[in-house]
Amino acid sequence: MVFENEYVQFTEYAWEKFYDSVDSTAFPEKDTEVIYKSLSKNLDAVPFCVYLKRYLHERMGFSGDCMTTPIEVYQKYICEQFQLHNTPASFDSKTARLSTMSRNWLTQQTVKRSVVFLLGFGLDMNEDDVNDFLEKALHERCINPKDPFETICWFCLQHGLKFQDYQRIWDRYLELPALTYDELDHILESKTVLVRSKLFTVQTEEDLMYFLSVLKRDKRNSKMSVSASMNFNELYNKSRILVADLKNQMEDESFAREMNEYRDALSRDPRLSDEEKLSRMENKRLSRQYYTPKDITEGDLEKVICSAVPTDKHGNLIPAKSSSLNKAFYGKRFTRQHIHDIIYGKIEIDRFDLITLNFFIYSQSGDSYSRNLNRFSAFTESTNWILSECSMGELYVTNPYESFVLMCMLTDDPLCTYADVLELSYQDGNRQDA
After folding, report:
1. What is the per-residue pLDDT across 1-28, written as a single tens digit (0 to 9) for each?
2. What is the DSSP string of 207-228?
3. Alpha-carbon distance 299 to 167, whole Å?
4. In Å, what is the CA distance from 340 to each residue of 61, 99, 251?
5. Alpha helix stretches (DSSP H) within 6-47
6. Less Cβ crowding at N or C end of the chain, within 10 Å?
7. What is the pLDDT of residues 74-121, one digit of tens each?
8. What gap in Å lies between CA 110 and CA 331, rounded to an integer?
9. Cα–Cα dist 227/229, whole Å
10. How far is CA 8 from CA 12, 186, 371, in A?
């Protein structure tokens, strides 16, 4: 286990390994191999269960390695705290057993967001603790002020209220009349950061009920973050412009060869006059295809970002489980289906969608930055601003995928390195399966 004692911080360890890789003498010439080795050996995602154990270890005042403490010790502490704070084992199930659920939490790689809020009540956490779990243990956004459930939990955390208070307020919320989209206050059309600032003005339970009455709406309307949607659309449109430029560059090269071959063929044809040859050359030139951003589909973007991922006979990407990095990168493939589902509101935008698009944009910056480090700094600053706008927290190097794109950004050709590392992962995955 990488944590020699409870005081060794996950983030510090991840940054140490990050710089061990990018500062190595081999990195400039063998960046692909260095990054792949680092991801394979040093940067496994910190599972939720480990983060929980570490938190409990500190809460209980223990010293030494949190992983050497028997799981039963943590399990007993959770049960005692939940009973002390009159918190059930589940928000929904009345039959869930606390002994079983607590053991699950201490062994699971990840959990639903609702589990973090339940632990907040059961372990008497504050708002910062809950946000740390959401961002660092689940690698998701902090408390969402546009989600009624999370808003109520936030209010309870802020005012030291217990689970019974949450249940009472939740029941009051359920009795509120649902508003149609046209009746909603402009707050729902605001950016998430603005909604959050208005939430901070909530001081009393009656203030909260008014805030919740604005949030409660027709179930047909999406709860997707306006901030995330705005940023995704902007990044997606920029990406389509870049892909169109790439396709036009390829078309230029291909068409130039084609024109030369056509010119040679016409020059050898004695049946045509010089005037007709010139006319045919002009017609040929006019047939050249130019791509606009509107021509770029989800599939085109997939082909660029996932260019190294092998495809089956139907042209579909082979399953992610074939990659040796699947566990570390689980759910991070930017496929055409994933993009389609975001565009049509079938799934919510997450931090990895925004990070990947911004990475692609900065990978195409060309000579805009004099040094790789300058591009790295600009990308980091831009991405952190976008994530903060969406209340998703800044780049978190402990997450393997985020560390991966940061390392790629320090190479001469970030997108090429990104593709080469993925290609290695599928080659290794196939060898392991053989």
Report:
1. 333 333 346 677 778 889 999 999 999 9
2. HHHHHHHHH-B-TTS----HHH
3. 46
4. 48, 41, 26
5. 10-22, 31-41
6. C
7. 999 999 999 999 999 999 888 889 999 999 999 998 888 899 999 999
8. 13
9. 5
10. 7, 46, 33
CB 64, CB 8: distance < 8 Å = no
- The set of residues, in sequence order, having a beta carbon less than 8 Å from that of 275 and lying 6+ positions away, is none
- Residue the block writes with tokens 């063929």: 265
Tokens of 202: 């909530």
Instruction: Return the residue matching tokens 């149609």.
Output: 180
CA dihedral 198, 199, 204, 209 (to 10 degrees): 100
Question: What letter represents residue 361's amino acid?
Answer: I
Cα separation, 339 vs 343, in Å, equals 6
Q: Tokens 């004692």, residue?
A: 5
CB contact at 8 A, 309 and 426:
yes
The tokens describing 356, both together, are: 């990947």
- How open is the CA angle 77-81-83, to the nearest 5 degrees? 120
Indicate the pTM of the whole model. 0.71
Chain-centre distance for alpha carbon 335: 13
Placement of tokens 């010439």 in the chain: 29
